[in-house]
Amino acid sequence: MRVLLIGGSGQLGSEIRRRWRDDDIVAPRHDEVDLGVPSSLDAAVGDGNAEVVVNCAAFHNVDRCETEVETALRINAVAVERLAELCAQSGKRFVTFSTDYVFDGMTEWPYGENDCANPISAYGVSKYTGELLVQRMRSDALIVRTCGVYGVRPSATKGYTFIDRVIAQARAGEHGRVVDDVVASPTYAGHLAEALRALLATNARGVVHASNVGPVSWFDFAAEALRQAGLEPTLDAIGSGEWKSGARRPRYSALDNVRLRELGITMPDWRAGIAAYLADRPGHPE
Ligand SMILES: NC(=O)c1ccc[n+]([C@@H]2O[C@H](COP(=O)([O-])OP(=O)(O)OC[C@H]3O[C@@H](n4cnc5c(N)ncnc54)[C@H](OP(=O)(O)O)[C@@H]3O)[C@@H](O)[C@H]2O)c1
Fold first, then answer.
1. Atom 35 (ligand 1): residue with closest C-alpha?
2. Which DSSP string corresponds to 91-138?
3. Catalytic residue set
């Protein structure tokens, strides 16, 4: 496949570049193709010869989105609509990513694609608006919702991964404080990149959930990461009320990969995600 990859330096984009070895991938830098600059999208997508456009870029600093709503909507919704439009016009397949934060978290079982979205943060609203704008075009676009992504190239937004932080704290003899009442399905970017490649070999369109399998609290996830790294799980459980943040986040946002399973594509469970991440980290053999 000839692929135009936007956001190719991020957690997921890096894994796509690393793993889709048989594909011809062009991955312009952020300053070359910027979702905030429509003319750069027109030039990259409209004039290029890619068969598939994969958009891994987003404004996903969840707390900043609360106060920078206009930017969130411009990057996560309007620009995504523009990309879908350009792809539809030029006969390219379009893939973009959405989030578990489109849900309100008022449930106790993993969300399937047909469950009702009801975002409770500006970030979630902006990503869901992007989904709706793309879907209204009735194109063959794929909208892949994922959850708690971590990768060997940490997001520039945070600069570190959650796993690296708890490992560093344990090695320093500190007790990490981790919420035990927030449940998600944290996803290793490498596994997501593999699932996406398999998905593109089908003619699936619309919303598809793709996350490492199994709901897990962030506390249990951190404890398992420490165990797998050969460290004592020295952690203090805290309630989400003790964790101050600008945006509301869903208490429960694990995803159920219903459509992926129907397509015969399986993703490893969350423990295998940790194991693969620890094995793949450059210079950090555990
Ligand atoms: N991370 C999560 O926990 C999570 C959870 C659910 C869904 N998602 C979604 O999954 C997708 C991939 O996330 P990720 O974790 O791989 O993100 P990431 O690591 O933060 O990477 C984002 C990429 O997009 C680029 N970028 C940022 N703003 C841009 C803009 N305005 N125009 C063009 N490029 C821009 C970044 O380049 P620079 O670094 O050079 O700016 C980087 O290459 C996103 O759609 C995100 O919303 C993420």
1. 57
2. T-EEEEEEEGGGS----SSPBPTTSPP---SHHHHHHHHHHHHHHTTT
3. 123
For residues 46 and 24, the answer to whether their CB atoms sit within 8 Å is no
Q: Say which residues have a Cβ less than 8 Å from residue 70's Cβ, sequence separation at least 6.
A: none
Tens digits of residue pLDDT in 267-282:
999 999 999 999 998 7
Place of tokens 């469970």: 269
| Domains defined for the chain, CATH in brackets | 2-153+181-217+245-280 (3.40.50.720)
Q: What is the pLDDT of residues 90-134, one digit of tens each?
A: 999 999 999 999 999 999 999 999 999 999 999 999 999 999 999
Q: What is the DSSP letter of 45?
A: I
What are the C-alpha distances in Å from 276 to residues 225, 268, 285, 286? 11, 10, 11, 11
With the most atoms of ligand 1 within 8 angstroms of its CB, the residue from 4, 5, 9, 40 to mutate is 9
Contact call for residues 165 and 231 (beta carbons, < 8 A): no
Report the separation in Å between the CA atom of 29 and the middle of ligand 1, taken as the mean of its atom positions.
Answer: 12
| pLDDT above 70 for 283 | no
One-letter amino acid of 182: V
The rounded Å distance from CA 7 to ligand 1 centre is 6
pLDDT at 24: 97
The confidence score (pLDDT) of residue 138 equals: 82
pLDDT band at 154; cut points 50, 70, 90 = confident
- As a whole number of angstroms, the distance between CA 83 and CA 88 comes to 9
Q: Sign (positive/negative) of CA torsion 190, 132, 40, 139?
A: positive
Which ligand 1 atom is the nearest neighbour of the CA of 75?
Answer: 31
